[in-house]
Amino acid sequence: MKFYKVMLVLTFIGSGCSLFAYILMGLLMPMLSQSYFAGDIPVADNMRAMYEMLFKVPRVFYILSGVCYGLSLVGAALMWNQRVWGFHAYTIAQIVILALPVVYMGNSFFNVGDAMITLLFVAYYYWAMRKLWALPDSKEVE
Predict the structure, then answer these.
(1) Is the residue at 12 inside a domain?
(2) Residue 27: which domain range?
(3) Which of 41, 68, 73, 121 shows the smallest number of beta carbons within 10 Å?
(4) Is 6 exposed, middle or buried (0-12, 13-18, 19+ CB in 10 A)?
(5) Alpha carbons within 13 A on the beta-carbon side of 126
(6) Residue 141, in any domain of the structure
């Protein structure tokens, strides 16, 4: 049970920070983009391509990502209280978070590392749901 709580704390930290960062980026994107293209933000020459790519991403991507991280945070809070819907909310949010870069930026932006970490967390939470919460197996429900 201790490791389960550690995993949830990691989820709170990761989803909470990402929620803040993506919502903030979505809200500040027009101002940052305008300042960058007006030359008000000093940028090293080797960083220009990264900044220009960052500003080409639609604003809705950042806002949707923030909303999904918020749903992930809510799911973790529900799982902390051993609510099954928390697992479902967390899993749906993580799947959408993995899909958003592909939808808005193309197939080359699918991150295998993020997918593997997500799979590990979802698999552990599923196992914990079955073992720690003493939920019936699907065979027993039939």
Answers:
(1) yes
(2) 2-134
(3) 41
(4) exposed
(5) 9
(6) no
Q: Where are the alpha helices (DSSP H) in the chain?
A: 2-37, 48-56, 59-80, 84-105, 112-131, 138-141
pTM assigned to the model: 0.85
pLDDT in tens, 97-136: 999 999 998 888 889 999 999 999 999 999 998 888 756 5
Q: What is the pLDDT of residues 55-99, one digit of tens each?
A: 889 999 999 999 999 999 999 999 999 899 999 999 999 999 999
C-alpha of 26 from chain center: 15
Domains of the chain: total = 1
Q: Does 121 reside within a domain?
A: yes
Work out the widest C-alpha separation in the chain, in whole angstroms: 65
